[in-house]
Amino acid sequence: METPALEVQVQTLPNSPGVYQYYDKNGKILYVGKAKNLKKRVTSYFTKRHDSHRIGVMVKKIKEIKHIVVESETDALLLENNLIKKHQPRFNVMLKDDKTYPWICIKNERFPRVFPTRKLIKDGSEYYGPFTSFKTVNTLLDLIKGLYKLRTCNYDLSEEKIRNGKYKVCLEYHLGNCKGPCEAKQPEAEYNSNIEAIRQIVKGNFKDSLQQFREQMKTHAEKMEFEDAQRIKNKIDVLENYQSKSTVVNPKITNVDVFSIVSDEGYGYVNFLQLSHGAIIRSHTIEMKKKLEETDEELLELAITEIRQRFSSNSKEIYVPFKVDAGEEVKVIIPKLGDKKKIVDLSLRNAKYYRQERFKQMKIVDPDRHVKRIMAQMKEDLRLNVEPRHIECFDNSNIQGTNPVAACVVFKNGKPSKKDYRKFNIKTVEGPDDFASMEEVVFRRYKRLLNEGEDLPQLIIVDGGKGQLSSGVKALEALDLRGKIAIIGIAKRLEEIFYPGDTIPLYLDKKSETLKIIQQLRNEAHRFGITFHRNKRTKTALNTELEEITGIGEKTVVELLKQFRSVKRIKEASEKELTEVIGVSKAGIIFNHYKSENTPE
After folding, report:
1. pTM score, two decimals?
2. Domain termination site, one of 244, 274, 292
3. Which residues form the UvrC family homology region profile domain (predicted)?
């Protein structure tokens, strides 16, 4: 499918956090931006008037929009930073320099220091972050310093140098901020246990610390020290909103290509994430038409070769969701958990979003292909012999056994065909009997279609479980249609789909389009049936009194009830009041009827 028109691209964007990229007609990147809601943010470029001349010029040049969906707004911020630094888009002003977001470093040394840094040095040190705000970094470091006494000097505290008395304690020791490991005043084991506790804090495990802060805040508040209480409350807010893990940037992952795939009957959608020094610098998704019954493994192998050539990737390592053959020179890793698995999941998420957008775009640009795809999917999911282009769904409606009715709704090519909807009064069944009612309406519906030579559906759905389904099957057998039309039942509670003669129900994926269409059919049948049932009950209620008066019809009753709201008020109304609503003649009939009723014999 060719790149759709710009308005179609905007219309089908997801309402998720992520990063968007604008490209011109030559495929050159113009701008990279982040968004909490991609659709809202991008739409604003094309609907608002821009004060900035630069933005106005850029919008005129946009021909294609690409995006990467991420878990959170924080990840979007970090990814935006990576992509701007990598691609240096013409219309971006901020973040083009080499200044990066800060990290917290636990230095690889004896008696490790803990400090903020913007540089990652590959010396075995541990880096946590990156952080989108120095406020978060400072709050965490304040928390750490408040709980643990750590050194700040950059001495080489080797055993030999400490033993030889090379260093003397500094002012930090006398101020109580350090326990003096430089003079062996603090054992290494004690210092290292503090470092382990600090690791837990920067990973986000600070339940105990939060509890301590809350107690301090409460104490300050009780002493009327509201400024101090607010200061601690601000720290609590920062810690509660802190996310220690970023899927987008991870210093443990170096230069890697990540691939994932989702597919349907006709197409495979392959997403590619390129990581350089632990940061995502590219995301690209392609749509591949299946030539034969190709497996996901075969499609992914083809895509890996094509994408790596297109982007001249020389990474020696790739992450994929399942085993593939990528050649002898490439190491293939199938992550099962941890950070590597998260990055594969992120790639898979982007492939799924891309597929959804293609469906939405197809619906707008090429509705015939969209219908064909949906029908093929339903045929496969429901194990049918033919595509269900014409589906009919039945629902019974009765409340406390009164006025039993049934509804039949019709979908053609996956859409409601309201002119074909039919409603039924139950004629042969006494009292509330769902099974017998279902048998009656299914029989009446298809007997009539057969008599009139109308087209029969490819699929019948009955709202209910095994009992209603059996009743529908009986009706088809009586008409010699069993086996000629597929029939299934859908049970409400667990969305179980039952087949004739099969005790084990089918469970469809909760997000599948097939289940969504079946649910839409069931809900529409229920709505249509309930509306008919209510109207009938209302009419019956009216019939019980006012319409029994000779010479008064339904329209007159409706007019009276609109004005007087109840039968009681109509009885109490004067002849003049009635005349103003329904005229002299009918007013006289009603007035005299109730007058004679109230006159004692």
Report:
1. 0.54
2. 244
3. 272-471
